[in-house]
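FAQ: What does a multi-protein file look like?

Like this. Sequence, then tokens, then the next protein.
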Amino acid sequence: MIDPAPIYEAGTAFWKSAVLFAACRLGVFDALEEAAGAAALAQRLDLSERGTAALLDACVALGLIEKAGDTYCNTQAADRYLTRRSPESLRVALEMQAATYPMWMRLSEAVRNGQPVITPRDLLGGDPELTRQFVVGMHQRALGIAGALVDAIDLTGHRVLADIGGGPGTYAVLMLQRHPGLRARILDLAPILEVARTLVASSGVGDRIEMVPCDATADDLGNGFDAALVSGLLHRMTAETSQRILRKVYAGMASGGLIAVSDLFTVCGGPAMAVLFGLQMLLTNDQGSAHEASDVASWLAQAGFVDVKITPLAPPLPHTVVTARKADAAP
């Protein structure tokens, strides 16, 4: 018999997402910071007892909640990532992801005409509230991979980091916290930087960060930096635009400088998350995709960089970092 399990699993995968999103929206994880039974929790949250019990048991089955007897409590992961009080909370990012569900139901439409099903500029300043949610969501997602990314990029001895398309500035902040002698410039669209300023202000390193309004696709990136980070930017760009940005980084970078390009790149056709992310770009952007890491490495070499290396971050993270160096000036 040919196993139909992969088909069935794909067809019902949204059930799991619906459980997670509903539990977040109803405040289940916040309420279960103190263990409780289904009846008590239903009363606390003004929910039906039948529905609460069914949702809690589904969360248990998904490994989000633990159950002992008739009492439920959060797992360690839920306490860390799904409660509002946690500094590592992913709630805003998940709410943004939940809002994309109707968009994914229009995937066949996007595939047919090759156009996004939302207005891309709404996320990039056109709608102030959506922009705020987008930037905060980026910050929360970035915290999830920040430690691995910072470990993968050694900026020891470097002086000025250009964080191009730096969004909320999460990575720049962590790089500066790791390297006390480093300064940073965050280059991004002005509406995004307005939100980022609030996040950076409480970082403890804000006095070493310069905010530079910039459209990397059209504007000059400046010069005088000896390190550059291009993270989560190229997936919104075509191959041609990506190459143009990398050439501009090369032109502005000091000799001996280091560039790190991080994203959900595909490597030999995977991982699945990166491939699916490419579809999300189809739904939300009028260009861009999940580029192949080997292509990015080739673009860096063509721009003039040397010592190009591809480093996948440790599982379960699906991200890949491509690093390269601008050769030292000839004596």
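And here is the next protein:
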Amino acid sequence: MNLPNKLTVSRFVLTVAFLVVMFSRMPFHETIALALFIAGGISDFLDGYLARRHKLITNFGILMDPLADKIMVCSAFIAFVGLKWISAWMVVIIVARELAITGLRLLAVSKNVVLAAEGYGKHKTISQIVAIISILVLASYEQWGPLGRVVFGAQVFGTTWVRWFTSLSVWVAVALTFVSGWLYLWRNRALYLDDM
């Protein structure tokens, strides 16, 4: 197994560790969960970068890398619903989009069609990661002592700036998720309309 594929597999392990820590009662569990999620995000960047740079692209990586990303992101959002940190309807949009696009790609494969990733999809992924990190920072920054409170607790418009930034980032992530999914399904509608 090459290094990019090992990094992909590590993301599954990091996701399990993230979920265990999120629902544990250990001290600083929100901060530890934040560190685990950031490590997962870094591994996502590195595996793609290394695979392209060193020509280590494999069928395993093509299939498992996006799957690992979706599981990591969806697991985080679902955990946040369980903790009442985000509205369930927002997460339904995010998870439904990922399932719909995965289903469309499977349909395309069955017809020997390769569906490339689109720019909106990449922006959607970045916005989701930013939203998740923002939510975790909001939940944990007070654990970081005076420095955390000074950096993230500064008041803007009557509340901490990290609170309104988190709200904004979540709304942007949900909007981009919906729009990117709708555009992807619309542009590739011939694939599923033929079978209806």
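Q: Is there any per-entry metadata?
A: Some entries carry free-text notes. For the entry above: Residues 42 and 125 are 13 Å apart (CA to CA).
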